[in-house]
Design brief:
Layout: H1 7-27, H2 31-68
Helix pairs in contact: 1-2
């Protein structure tokens, strides 16, 4: 599988590939499908949610500071 020449990176990559293959088999989908779900759908969606939460908390924090004065 991995062949970067950096042992720990190759080990982590190989572990993750095997984990995704096993998870895909459990879910009854292919390795490619689980990659699309994780890296094209779930990860971007969670990133957008996190970004929105950071903005919401910054606004809330600014309001609390303003009300304290």
């Amino acid at each position: 599988m991995a062949n970067s020449g950096i042992q720990w990176i190759d080990t982590v990559f190989n572990f993750c590939v095997v984990l995704l293959i096993d998870l895909a088999n459990i879910l009854g989908i292919t390795y490619e499908e689980i990659n699309v779900w994780i890296f094209c759908i779930i990860w971007p969606l969670l990133s957008l949610i996190l970004f929105a939460e950071v903005i919401r908390l910054r606004i809330k924090n600014e309001q609390m500071i303003k009300n304290r004065s």
